[in-house]
Specification:
The complex is a heterodimer. Chain A is α/β, with parallel strands linked by helices. Chain A contains 14 helices and 17 strands. In chain A, helix 1 packs across helix 4. Chain B has helices at residues 2-28, 35-43, 57-66, 79-90, 125-131, 147-151, 178-182, 210-216, 226-230, 255-259, 280-288; strands spanning 100-104, 157-160, 165-168, 188-192, 199-202, 236-239, 242-245, 265-268. In chain B, strand 2 (157-160) and strand 3 (165-168) form a beta hairpin. In chain B, helix 2 (35-43) packs across helix 3 (57-66) and helix 2 packs antiparallel against helix 4. The longest helix of chain B is centred in the first third of the chain and has 27 residues, at 2-28. Chain B is elongated, with a radius of gyration of 27 Å. The chains are: A alpha/beta, B alpha+beta. The A-B interface holds A 84, 86, 89-92, 326, 336-340, 360-362, 422, 425-426, 428-429, 432 and B 116-117, 120-122, 124, 126-127, 130-133, 135, 139, 208, 212.
Chain lengths: 443, 289
């Protein structure tokens, strides 16, 4: 019996169309736009100005505040301007426009493919390198990694959990990365274990990636303390709290962080970025992006520099099909529909999903029939229909009592609702309002 | 016969006993309430809209009675007459507040502001605003999904299906501010109603540079500053490429309306202009305005 989380969950059709496609590097276009806000937390301050020459890896955005992350140039060339640009958030925000010339890298970066498994860095040095490289959670949440790896005073990490679940349908970027860079990932895990001073790490992989499970089980034997666990195919297995429950049978209390039960969860893509940052001095300037969709000519996994427009990636996959109804940045469950494909790839872009128009349309909403399916599937044990109603009527105190802020926005409730009610839309709205009220109360 | 008498006597005794207990309890736990609170409450319109900033009319009445002065206390629904009556009851003087009315500061109708994509999500402005900047090139303008309409308890604001913009019914609007709070884009503002309901305001909230804003919408404020130059009363300020008319300083001369190149400044309820415009450019501006 495969391990899984204990409350709720669904199993949407996997549709991993791009599985097994080797990661292809994508050519850099004539101009890139690098947003100065690619992470959760304060946006970066630009440290370059118009006309400055930059190389790949040159710092262009300095982090301000504790929860923030550095941003580096992903290309070499000249800074055209610092101006507002539309990004995947749907709004125009500050970004650095760079005209691409040649492909010069900063001299400190080791560009060889060879594996560097030895590391003499102290935990503090590792954390500093992670912060300097601007690494954020690559699963899509984009929380600054160095913050996550610095447990608050009074807490102690006991186990490192590697999130290699990739439970989102369609997406295969993590899977392919695992197949191609297994050694690097394992070295990356040892680095993070050292930084956190933990002796145990568990890699959680959903069982639809049997090849990855086999590969890592075999290779992890050489690394003491690292275990591999195949997990049941159940969404949202890759949710942080769900994964902790599945692997070590501990439940993170309402409103608390995973560290409160001694766990630190890192995405497998983040681990690879950490390896490159620490062992190769390479800042986070590129990532693997899945471009997929039922009518897409060549669903593929691409290695794209940050700041490349999504249109370039879509071209590489055979262009936008005529039937396109919606383009989603991320996966179908948690991704966000885009208003324009002329937005840049950012650190959190895990995939581009192109949905044909009949599927893209929302179905007409009906009245709630009190079937309770949303309650059954909610992995956080919430009552989605109640939370939606409370938000509709603005009853914020009751919404807070019913733990609306615990919602992980996985969308299982909306997916399963037979009346097509937009449960998550409302809950997300209410969650934002209640979080605002809580913040106002604290100040 | 005696059964009936016994029953009457028993029930009568229970009734009298209970009445006595109730009387004693009501005396013992009596709450002294200022009778003026009820008087003030009777004067208030009873809309319970929260426009005064208090939870309902009863709370407002209690605050008025407790307050030392009526400075800053105002019932937007009842307006000056109601506040004068309240002041009379309390033996104080009401602060003079000009009647306000909600204005929608966006003129980006379907003709002026072309739609670039199709929004298919929940029909609620606040949800759409959390997702993206809207289905036009302007991420500041009205989304047209009617959160303000839903918030209004006086049926004073409606979406015009032709323009997809909300329109305020001035007679019904009480300036309670519910729509201002509901709008996620901060488009609606409470402004002085003005003499004979005459008002001038900048009907735009776009803070982008002129060229960018103009690309998205024909009637956007481009922050050119012409209105600021022409204003004799120093009522116009320009901040973040956006003009704002201070309704305390504005004397309704309409000079700014005539010079605005994008017709972003709106004049309401004015009689047609008499003087002949000097240049064809101004003529055009006058006619459209």
């Amino acid at each position: 019996m495969l391990k899984s989380f204990r409350i709720g969950g669904i199993h949407p059709k996997e549709n991993k169309l791009s599985a097994g496609r080797a990661i292809q590097p994508i050519a850099v276009p004539a101009q890139v736009i690098i947003p100065l806000s690619q992470h959760i937390g304060a946006p970066c301050q630009p440290v370059v100005k118009k006309g400055d020459k930059v190389k790949v890896g040159t710092l262009i955005g300095k982090s301000v505040g504790f929860v923030s992350s550095q941003i580096h140039s992903s290309v070499s060339g000249t800074v055209l301007k610092i101006d507002k640009a539309l990004d995947a958030s749907g709004y125009k925000r500050d970004a650095v426009y760079i005209k691409v010339e040649e492909d010069e890298w900063e001299e400190t970066i080791d560009r060889s493919e060879s594996l560097v498994s030895e590391s003499a860095f102290t935990p503090k040095e590792i954390l500093e390198k992670i912060a300097a490289a601007g690494i954020v959670g690559m699963g899509g949440a984009t929380f600054p990694t160095h913050v996550k790896l610095t447990p608050p005073p009074g807490t102690k990490a006991e186990v490192l959990i590697i999130n290699a679940v990739e439970c989102e349908p369609y997406l295969t970027s993590d899977h392919q990365l695992m197949m191609e860079k297994s050694d690097e990932i394992l070295v990356g895990i040892t680095l993070v274990m050292k930084a956190l001073n933990v002796q145990r790490a568990i890699i959680g992989i959903e069982n639809n990636k049997k090849d990855a499970v086999a590969l890592f089980t075999q290779k992890a034997k050489a690394y003491p303390g690292i275990a591999v666990e195949a997990l049941k195919m159940q969404y949202p297995q890759g949710g942080e709290k769900q994964l902790i429950d599945a692997l070590i049978r501990r439940q993170v209390p309402s409103g608390a962080l995973p560290i409160s039960v001694g766990a630190v969860v890192q995405n497998v893509g983040t681990i690879f970025a950490i390896y490159e940052a620490v062992q190769k001095n390479k800042p986070l300037v590129e990532r693997v992006v899945t471009v997929t969709g039922k009518e897409v000519q060549r669903p593929c996994n691409l290695r794209a520099r940050i700041g490349i427009p999504l249109t370039t990636l879509i071209e590489a996959a055979g262009g936008l099909p005529e039937s396109t109804g919606k383009v989603i940045c991320g996966g179908p469950m948690m991704g966000k529909a885009l208003a324009s494909v002329d937005v840049p790839v950012t650190k959190g872009t895990s995939g581009i999903l192109i949905v044909p128009s009949p599927e893209a349309k929302r179905k007409a909403m009906n009245d709630c029939i009190r079937c309770g399916k949303c309650v059954e599937v909610c992995p956080m044990g919430l009552n989605p229909t109640l939370l939606m109603t409370l938000t509709e009527y603005g009853v914020w105190d009751k919404a807070e009592k019913n733990a609306i802020t615990d919602c992980i926005e996985c969308g299982s409730c909306s997916y399963t609702c037979p009346a097509n009610r937009p449960l998550l839309d409302y809950i997300r709205l209410g969650k934002g309002k209640v979080n605002g009220i809580i913040r106002a109360r604290k100040n | 016969m005696s059964v009936i008498l016994t029953a009457i006597a028993t029930l009568g005794a229970i009734g009298a006993g209970s009445a006595g207990i109730l009387y004693l309890v009501s005396q013992k736990f009596k709450i002294e309430e200022d009778p003026r609170i009820q008087d003030v409450l009777d004067t208030l319109p009873g809309a319970n809209c929260g426009g005064c900033g208090f939870p309902g009319c009863a709370a407002f009445a209690a605050t008025c009675v407790k307050a030392e002065t009526l400075e800053g206390l105002n019932c937007p629904v009842g307006g000056q007459p109601t506040m004068d009556k309240v002041a009379f009851i309390l033996g104080q003087t009401a602060s003079k507040t000009a009647k306000k009315v909600a204005v929608v500061r966006c003129s980006g109708s379907c003709d002026e502001r072309p739609r670039l994509n199709l929004y298919d999500g929940s029909s609620k402005c606040s949800i759409a605003a959390a997702l993206y900047g809207g289905d036009t090139g302007c991420s500041f303008g009205c989304l047209g999904l009617g959160d303000c309409v839903e918030a209004c308890t006086f049926d004073a604001i409606h979406i015009n299906p032709a323009t997809r913009l909300p329109e305020v019914v001035e007679d019904k609007c009480t300036a309670c501010g519910a729509c201002v709070k509901a709008c996620p884009k901060d488009i609606i503002e409470l402004r002085k109603q003005g003499p004979k309901s005459r008002r001038i305001y900048v009907s735009c909230v776009n803070k982008e540079k002129g060229g960018v804003a103009r690309k998205a919408c024909n009637v956007t404020c481009i922050g050119c500053g012409k209105c600021q130059q022409v204003c004799p009363f120093d009522a116009i300020t320009i901040e973040n490429n956006l003009a704002y008319i201070d309704d305390d300083k504005c004397r309704l001369c309409r000079k700014c309306v005539a010079v605005c190149p994008t017709h972003a400044i709106i004049e309401l309820n004015f009689p047609p202009r008499k003087e002949t415009p000097q240049s064809p450019k101004e003529e055009e501006a006058t006619i459209t305005a």
